[in-house]
Amino acid sequence: MKILIIKLRNIGDTLLITPLFENLKSHFGESTAIDVLVNEGTEGILPAQLIRKIYTLKRLDKKLQKLKGEIELLRAIRQEKYAMALSLTSGERSAFMSFISGAKMRIGFTPKTFWAKPIYTHNLKEKHQHTIENNLEALRVLNIPIITKKVQAAKAQESLNFAIPTNFIHLHLFSRWMFKALSDDFCAKIIDFITQTYAIECLLTCSNQQELEKLQSILNLSQNKPKFLNNLSLAEVSLLNSKALAFVGVDTAIMHLSAANNTPTFAFFGPSGAIHWGPWDNDLFTSTYTQKNGIQRMGKHLVYQESFPCVPCGRDGCEGSKKSDCLLTKLNEELALRTLKDFLDPLLLPLRGEKP
Predict the structure, then answer these.
(1) Spatial distance between the Cα atoms of 256 and 151, rounded to a whole number of angstroms
(2) pTM
(3) What domain range is 114 assigned to?
């Protein structure tokens, strides 16, 4: 039994397809070959032990190289003779890849283009529910029992080139979409608040030059100078995060990775909705993100979001500015830090022999 799963989105989206793997193997048998097709640069988040093969779609600038690469990719997929293709991305490209696979059973979210609509043998529609649940619709339409909703991330071996502190809080204050970012000044306040309130080390990660420059600006505003690590692989960040007492960050792939590691996760949300994107607690089977906005929990994880009527808007910043006022000028910093304290107290005060 060969199954191809297609998810052509970002790193966090790719991670949230992983609950399908164990459900498929449970239903069809452990020998089931599960292959995935994802965008290049997202594959490092996937747990290799559950996957036979990973194809990556390269977004090349040079047209000839792009054409050659995609022809080779299509040929490789076609040669596998898949029995089933699950396309978890709405769009014509994913539908076409599903068709090219030659699979007799093709399940996917119905594309808008008229020529692509007949491609799937089983059509899906996105519902107002968590992204994990929408991905699992591919199994429900086939009457495949869902026995787990556990998210699993890649993790590096215990061989990082730096000493991981015994007790620390992991902070990743960036997203590839800067309209999900907090102000540099408030990020500095978060660092100082954690360091001074709990006398514990903060360890920050960032992943590219833009984030590094923003991090330098944050550190210039901070009274404390925590350690930071740049350009770790996703598996290395995962290992680091798995040893943290808690994670604090924004709506980003590393937030989802933290939740997958069962690390208590505190996330600031702006334009995105927690109902769809909140950090998933692997110890639960049903999402508890039911409000449009505001402060919400799912098990050990917490989302902080302002309760403005326009939140979440799903847009790339206010009026297309690439900046979100609900995370910047209109963020209730006092309430946010008080909520963060309520989240961290039960985790950190016992380390000092204090009661929460």
Answers:
(1) 9
(2) 0.95
(3) 2-140
